[in-house]
Amino acid sequence: MRALRYWSTYIAVLPFLVPTASYAWNMPIGVTDVSGDIYRLHMTIFWICVAIGLLVFGAMFYSLFRYRHAKGAKAAHFHENTLVEVLWTAIPVLILVAMAVPATATLKQMYDPSDADLDVMITGQQWRWRYEYMGENVAFTSSLSTPRVQISGEEKRGETYLLDVDNPLVLPVNRKVRFLMTSDDVIHSWWVPELAVKQDAVPGFINENWVRINEPGIYRGQCAELCGMDHGFMPVVVHAIEEKAFDEWIAERKAAAEKEISGIDRDWKLAELMERGQATYEAICVSCHQPGGKGSPPAFPALAGNEQLIADQAWHLDRVINGVSGAAMPAFRDTLNPVEIAAVVTYTRNAWGNDTGDVVQPSVVAEQVDQ
Amino acid sequence: MAKLPPKSMPLHSTPAAADGQLNTHTALPKGVMRWVLTTNHKEIGTLYLLFSLSMFFVGGVFALVVRAELFQPGLQLIDPEFFNQMTTMHGLIMVFAAVMPAFTGLANWMIPLQIGAPDMALPRLNNFSFWLLPVAFTLLLSTLLMPGGGPNFGWTFYAPLSTTYAPASTTFFILAIHIAGISSILGAINIIATILNMRAPGMRLMDMPLFVWTWLITAFLLIAVMPVLAGVITMMLMDINFGTNFFNAAGGGDPVLFQHLFWFFGHPEVYIMILPAFGIVSAIIPTFARKPLFGYTSMVYATAAIALLSFLVWAHHMFLVGLPLVAELFFMYSTMLIAVPTGVKVFNWVTTLFRGSISFEPPMLFALAFVVLFTIGGFSGIMLAIAPADFQYHDTYFVVAHFHYVLVPGAIFAIMAGAYYWLPKWTGHYPNERLAQWHFWLSVIGVNLTFFPMHFAGLAGMPRRIPDYALQFADFNMVSSIGAFFFGTSQLLFVIVVVICVRGGKKAPAKAWEGAEDLEWSVPSPAPLHTFERPPKFERSTS
């Protein structure tokens, strides 16, 4: 019924809708040299096609108008003319060669193999991205942060609806950044239109692409390869910042990561693990196991009231650390740190009426991960 | 001596019905069994066409579910899981159950009539080929009701989404595609055997109507690539059920291998869906321009060239999968080359119109719309062939706009054109002109309203196959959804026209269209159950 109401409102206001000027109609020029080259190539080919179209359709509509049977047109009977046929084969070949020359040059530039100033490993996972700054000991996952209530329409949708993440990828401007892309499960495709980088993340493969951003800013994109249920809900957000700010940022992240690892051995309280665990659950687990741990059986089992989970803490921990082979549940041993795993397991064992009272300590998890 | 497309000599052709030699010695089964057991090419052709038409509406309803969800941002009607099942099923049904069987149906009806043969070469095989289809697609559609739902991995079913991560019903999906594939292969064998062996005495290959030529080449494409599809789905079957790791990276397999195999089938497959359309349009345009096709010979060679090139371009669907530079360049150049023979075809049609005497009956309207809108799809095809630009276009709505332009106002308009062109031969009545005109204009408006905005949505950055989208795509999607409901509803008019035409209407003579020249116009309208029981004498026209 709600759907019906939406529809009737929209149909009623339809005649008054006009596209607003802020709406993009065309490929963005983007903020890298390559994206500018691709844009110009795109427009060149487009205008060549328009010109050919005007000629062909012009000739066609002229004939349709001029030689109407109803106006008494008498049909000629000519057919086959070698000169004409050679010309309309040869001229398109020349036009295609003219298109291929700039296309080849741009492609060669995109495949430039020279060394990069920074390597970032991008790993696709159903349905989030994991970024690892190679050699910097900084890694994090990046998931959709648009509230679910906006998707269901209970709350007004924000300007960056579906294009917001919890942890954006932070990159320096003016430095060559190499992306190494792979996937933990199915094929994903990492795409930011303004950077003209779109590359498949294929399990078992490491693909390369690179970018040198010319302007600081926030650039948004999405997964482009169908990767399952929440394919439409795994955006990419890149914060491009000045080089100096980037160096400070990465140093900060590095220090924070070291601090977190040093906290593994201390004794954690239920309340702090619950708080951490809820955040992790909402960033990582919720897309499959759903808000409230309801799950979406049969592919994604419910966690709330799951008897096996409640009964067997070791089994539960093992599933989170090592995943379930042959099913959608990935192994989180490399994706989440021991604190996050301990927190999320503690959280799921105590939330939504599971109430086991169990507290899983990060030190226990660290031991099991190291095995 | 320049060659004209073949001209039939009605005086010399001897349809059996005209001689009073109707095949009366075999008693036809009555009721349903008559259709189940029929080996008559006309009846089997009708079965194919009716099956295709009903599947066109099933696939269309799936598309409308998708468009309804995409009418505005947010999730309103269906959840993402079911959305994926709908996009997948829409694609599979339209490709394998609507477009392909429609062309096979037209081939069944028209190839024997156009070459002066009494029936298909292998009539019982023909019956079997058809009846495999309802089995295959009942099975495929039934997966929607299975626990875990139907196929949800797109009609391209990329591994490992379609293997390790697939719903339990995938094994049934594989079986359904196997059965449909066997049907296609058997149909193709039958068509080749018919064309090569059963032409009227005196009809050389280069005398055949272009619809026959394009189908001959299409049939060879089918025989070449359907086994590759069968191979790839068998590998999926093994991965899912028997513990192999063809496509499972964790077991040493290769997900990219899947795409190479799939597109080695998939690219010729898209030409399988368009070459017979070229044949239909090449029959209709000369008829209503009352002027011979400008370049019959070059049309034949262009068709063959497109078919050969179709084996060398598959990886243009895979520009982003991580190919090395040389491979990108090779597939970019080979793909661009396809524009040359395709251009030759378009130029031929336009030159045929030039200085003709043109009238605008419904088949001609659809054929003309085909030329314009298919060419627009061709232009976006050239843009997509440019590998560096494809890094932006790939997997966006720009691609969706492109292939719908070549398939809907391309393949499907050509099928509609063919139906309007041959309905007088099938039923003995002309289709209702006024309703057909309405159907045409509503279809043209609907198709452009639906698919043209998708170009903009894609360029602006909207990925394919998403159930919900960012707010900047809202207007384009709303227009597309309105267009889709408009187009879908107006197709009901086609059903009405066909029903009226079967029941009555203006009587059509043997030669229903003034400018029509091929052999089918030498038999009475409606064509009697058995035609050309004695081969007609084919005489080449000279000029």
Automatic annotation (TrEMBL), chain A:
Residues annotated as transmembrane: 7-25, 45-65, 86-105
InterPro entries given in the database record: CcO_II, CcO_II-like_C, Copper_CuA, Cupredoxin, Cyt_c-like_dom, Cyt_c-like_dom_sf, Cyt_c_oxidase_su2, Cyt_c_oxidase_su2_TM_dom
Sequence ranges assigned to domain Cytochrome c in this UniProt record: 272-352
GO cellular component, one term: plasma membrane
Cofactor binding remark: Binds a copper A center.
Membrane topology category: Multi-pass membrane protein
EC number annotated for this UniProt entry: 7.1.1.9
Keyword terms, alphabetized: Copper, Electron transport, Heme, Iron, Membrane, Metal-binding, Respiratory chain, Translocase, Transmembrane, Transmembrane helix, Transport
Cellular localization per UniProt: Cell membrane; Membrane
Catalytic activity annotation: 4 Fe(II)-[cytochrome c] + O2 + 8 H(+)(in) = 4 Fe(III)-[cytochrome c] + 2 H2O + 4 H(+)(out)
GO BP terms: ATP synthesis coupled electron transport
Named cofactor requirement(s): Cu cation
All copies of domain Cytochrome oxidase subunit II copper A binding, residue ranges: 115-252
Enzyme class: translocase
GO molecular function: copper ion binding; cytochrome-c oxidase activity; heme binding; oxidoreductase activity
Domain Cytochrome oxidase subunit II transmembrane region profile: 17-114
Family: Belongs to the cytochrome c oxidase subunit 2 family.
Function of the molecule: Subunits I and II form the functional core of the enzyme complex. Electrons originating in cytochrome c are transferred via heme a and Cu(A) to the binuclear center formed by heme a3 and Cu(B).
Protein name: Cytochrome c oxidase subunit 2
Source organism: Vreelandella salicampi
